[in-house]
Amino acid sequence: MSRETPEIEETVEAWAHARLEALAAEAAEVASQFYLRAAQERAERPREEWGRVGVRVRPVRAVRAAPGAFSIEWFTRRWVNRAGSRARTFTTYLRRGKGDRYSRSVLAGVAQPWELALAEALEERFAEIRRLARGVSRVRMAFRQHAKLERMMTEERGQRIQPDASHKILTGVFTND
């Protein structure tokens, strides 16, 4: 393994973590734009048109997740016992599917028309952020795989260079034993 590989690996890990944190912060800013605009819309509409769609940016807590990994998720809210002191909110997350963005049909099934227009506009930016985050993760994984391959090759070379009788014969090195 080259001498600089561990240093480069640390640098790549630090860059990936910092870049993912920056992307998560950008996604959180976009999500806050959704809530600001939604509050403005609700102020102008009757309660039955308020809508119940929301978006969250949250860290991925899986054991194997990269440091700084995050998800951007759309959901719906449902309130139970609104008038009582025991009001509760239930959240149902929407399925994104295999692509980088939520489909219009998934959002249209649960959103008010004004929410749908707003969500679709913001989802374009969220899709870009998801693509960038995936790219950062791919760079990180590719370098980790490369460093692992270099370590394996260095270990194999170290085992092959062990001097033994056949090595001595092939190189012409003999001792008087």
Q: How would you describe this structure to a colleague?
A:
This protein has four helices and three strands, in the order αβββααα. The protein has helices at 5-44, 104-108, 113-160, 165-171; strands at residues 53-59, 70-80, 88-93. Strands 1-2-3 form a three-stranded antiparallel sheet. The longest helix has 48 residues, at 113-160. The chain is elongated, with a radius of gyration of 27 Å.
Short recap of the structure:
It is built from 4 helices and 3 strands. By secondary structure, it is α+β, with helices and mostly antiparallel strands.
SSE layout and pairings?
Layout: H1 5-44, E1 53-59, E2 70-80, E3 88-93, H2 104-108, H3 113-160, H4 165-171
Antiparallel strand pairs: 1-2, 2-3
Number of strands: 3
How much helix is in the residues? Answer: 55-70%
- Calculate the terminal CA-CA distance, rounded to whole Å: 36 Å
Q: What fraction of the residues are assigned to beta strands by DSSP?
A: 5-15%
H-E order:
HEEEHHH
Average residue pLDDT: 86
Shape: elongated
Query: In terms of per-residue confidence, which ranges show pLDDT below 50 for 5 or more consecutive residues?
Result: none
How many separate structural domains?
1
Instruction: Specify Rg, calculated over alpha carbons.
Output: 27 Å
Sheet of most strands: 3 strands, antiparallel
In order across it, which strands form the biggest sheet?
1-2-3
So how many helices?
A: 4
Secondary-structure-based class equals: alpha+beta
Notable features of this structure?
single chain; three-stranded antiparallel beta sheet; 4 helices; elongated
